[in-house]
């Protein structure tokens, strides 16, 4: 799904009108037809509330569409002065068609009381300041009377800023928001769900290929994830699905390594090997399918010759969870990223998380060794250390800071949290899955395991990160329907089933 703010929407609009030569009134008609498709068969007795911009124009066009389907329709016109051209055209048609139009605020209570469904087209992407006066009164009245009615918002609930999700003084609380072309960036704001209701994104008659060059941001949906799927060749063998080497876990934190390894195995990697202390036997019990590369932490260098062979044999290396920030951890990290290509001549992909990111923040010369082949998966605090921006700065301008960082260091960034971001500096994806019940230790390790596994199965870095984030959150979203908290172990046991559902059902 395309993701865009008010500016992107205007650009698409201009492109459609000026380059594709689609008259703007046709776009509005298409929007109205698409919108009306979602009106239930049993829904009747509508009050359409219209402003004077194109959002209001959509409202009049929708009123006409509903009227043509013999629905009971009344319109409340907020102002018939200074209407936009297309708003005025549709307003005139409504008048000429005999649809009842009301103008006086005193009438609004009765109209709201008598209708069953409200469609509001007061403001859309054109809202540009705090809402006051009569507009505020009308929005408050809609909310007051909406308890037993269904409220549809056209494009954006009037009062929500399409870019930021900020409530501009007051906002309509919709049951359903039917928005056009792009999922509005503002919808991502976590505390406005009660204003948006169910969100549906509709087409206005544009082929995605015609406008895709205008948009570089996407809201990750199952369609996009399905589109990334690489079908398994029936003649394939385990060597085709990646040799993944994992450096995760250390004394006191072996669980981290075990979680990464198990997630990696469950997500379908061909062969999984974990570099771990020679005295750690928990891996074999927790993940019998994984192999271990024992290392003597008393004298790590004595293992480096063998380790070099292991690196040359790998397709992907995941580094970080639970390794600590000791000099020894740093030495192993440096060794693991010192070889760029494996025995097959392929670039060895890297997935860096947790302490690997902290070590990277403190040893910035290592960025040179990881460029063009890495996914970095920081949470906000790790990203703050990596990027030098404060949490406040990142939260204010997350998309741009994330993109600039990915571009500058030539890496794929997966910035974790609510609405995880994935970007390679050019394209940006925002994850649509996940919930607060998964905010507990080990979740990130699980994600790392899934991503390195996918990278081993020949998915690109961006694709691995997108599928990983989507799948990880999707499993949690399913589990919270029947349980209160979701831990990494719960996710792990459901990876394969959810992969089947996403890729094959
Ligand atoms: N390409 C697209 O996405 C299309 C957009 N269409 C519709 O066009 C809408 C955008 O239309 P407009 O750009 O005309 O903008 P709007 O209709 O959202 O609002 C603009 C009007 O509201 C006034 N206004 C803004 N803030 C105000 C405030 N705080 N208090 C009082 N008045 C205020 C402006 O002066 C202007 O008259 C979209 O939201 C969508 O509904 C559709 O017609 C189909 C095509
Ligand atoms: N409120 C939330 N909404 C969506 N996803 C969340 C939320 N809280 C945590 N997550 C997800 O859980 C994971 C936690 O990762 P991380 O912070 O690295 O945990 P840890 O290091 O403890 O394993 C991330 O993938 C993050 O996106
Ligand atoms: K609206």
UniProtKB/TrEMBL annotation:
Q: Which UniProt keywords apply?
A: ATP-binding, Isomerase, Kinase, Lyase, Metal-binding, Multifunctional enzyme, NAD, NADP, Nucleotide-binding, Potassium, Transferase
Cited Pfam families: Carb_kinase, YjeF_N
For binding K(+), which residues are annotated in this chain's numbering?
A: 55, 158
In Gene Ontology terms, what is a biological process of this protein?
metabolite repair
Tell me the InterPro entries matching this sequence. CARKD, Nnr, Ribokinase-like, YjeF_N_dom, YjeF_N_dom_sf
Q: Which residues are in the YjeF N-terminal domain?
A: 9-212
Names of required cofactors: Mg(2+); K(+)
- Reaction equations catalysed: (6S)-NADHX + ADP = AMP + phosphate + NADH + H(+); (6R)-NADHX = (6S)-NADHX; (6R)-NADPHX = (6S)-NADPHX; (6S)-NADPHX + ADP = AMP + phosphate + NADPH + H(+)
Q: Which residues cross the membrane?
A: none
Q: Which residues take part in binding (6S)-NADPHX?
A: 54-58, 124-130, 135, 155, 256, 322, 379, 445
Which top-rank group of organisms is this from? Bacteria
Q: Where is the YjeF C-terminal domain?
A: 221-502
GO molecular-function terms, A-Z:
ADP-dependent NAD(P)H-hydrate dehydratase activity; ATP binding; kinase activity; metal ion binding; NAD(P)HX epimerase activity
Q: At which positions is AMP bound?
A: 416-420, 444
Q: Which HAMAP family match?
A: NADHX_dehydratase, NADHX_epimerase
Fetch the NCBIfam families from UniProt: yjeF_cterm, yjeF_nterm
Q: Which family does it belong to?
A: In the N-terminal section; belongs to the NnrE/AIBP family.
Describe the protein's quaternary organization and the partners it interacts with: Homotetramer.
Name of the protein this chain belongs to: Bifunctional NAD(P)H-hydrate repair enzyme
